[in-house]
Amino acid sequence: MDSTLRMRDELAEAERRLGPGHEDVLRLRHNYAFFLCMWSAAAPPGDTYMQDQAIPLLLENLRHQSATLGPHARDTLITLHGIGSAHLSAGRPAEAIPYLEQAVEGSDRGPGRDEEETLTWREKLSDAYAAAGRADRALASLEEAVAGSRRLLPPGGDRLEARKQKLFMAYRAGGLLTEAIALCREIVADKERFYGPDHLDTYIWLDNLAHVHHDARDLDAAVACYERVIDGFERIHGPDSEEIAYRYHNLAIAHLEAGRPERALPYLKAALAAREHSLGPDHPGTLDALIGLISGYDQAWRVEEAIEATERLIAALVRLGGPTHPKLPEVYTYLDQLTRARSREGPS
């Protein structure tokens, strides 16, 4: 806070001595506004006091810079970006967008279209569009940032990879599964090239690839990726970890949706065993895995095993909530249906 007050006083003194549009005053005003924006990161959620103090300072600079340097001068564009960023961090994307657009458009006029600063501004503009609910514009701006990053940055670099991963998430969220799959395959190839085929990051992105294949209903491709992920996660985390239980479950679901319940059952059992080991027998995650196994038995028409697992679920619910547990009526009804199905089936 002492630094903030000192910067404010230095700015006021310089304005008195040199006038509000002097280049030294512009620099001091910019630095003071930038410092306020930095401090805003420590504010409680919803507190925009620092941004609200910084924005008028930047607008004052913009007025002088536009008049003396021109609307496309680098310092003018930096100020435009600063105003937009302050509005965005204050939760006002609609107010941020015009300033960020002007900054990007001005930068595109010069030779620095693919400079890192411009790419960062383009990515910030994408964030503002997304926050304002303008998904198509957000995606287009992010695609441009990735394309420029490919031209400027070396393969495997952190900034390029981060933008590609962000674009993948946007494709998937927007239901653009063909684009998401192609980009995810590229990211997996990058991980294999720079980290190796058995690195945790490689398996994490293989898992993402499995999910997006699953989303696209390419179940065989999803299964192939899930199987490789499980092989890697078993070696890294062990067969009884919560991390592997989640992957066992996903592979089992892919088999079930492909009409292969018998192939799903070993993974449903493994998921249950892993969650019992890592979470305990009565944890909600363990009970979810038990319910998944019951469903697998049901789909495989293994009624006796479904009954045994359902009785086990009932015992767990009674332990947790007593005989009046709210889930028990539903489970008892299901058990009754299984028992009647066994009676119709007759002795094996």
Query: How do the SSEs run, as a string of H and E?
Result: HHHHHHHHHHHHHHHH
What percent of the residues sit in helical stretches (DSSP H or I)? over 70%
Q: What is the mean pLDDT?
A: 95
Question: What's the count of strands?
Answer: 0
Distance between the termini: 80 Å
Summing up helix and strand content along with how strands pair, one would put the structural category as mainly alpha
Radius of gyration: 29 Å
Shape: elongated
The proportion of residues in beta strands is under 5%
Largest sheet: none
Treating each run of at least 4 consecutive H or I residues as one helix, how many helices? 16
Query: Are there runs of 5+ residues with pLDDT below 50, and where?
Result: none
Gist of the model:
This protein is mainly alpha-helical.
Walkthrough of the structure:
The mean pLDDT is 95. Helices cover 80% and strands 0% of the residues. It is elongated, with a radius of gyration of 29 Å. The protein is mainly alpha-helical. The protein contains 16 helices and no strands. It has helices at 2-18, 23-40, 49-68, 74-89, 93-109, 116-131, 135-152, 158-173, 177-194, 200-215, 219-237, 242-257, 261-279, 284-299, 303-321, 328-345. The termini are far apart.
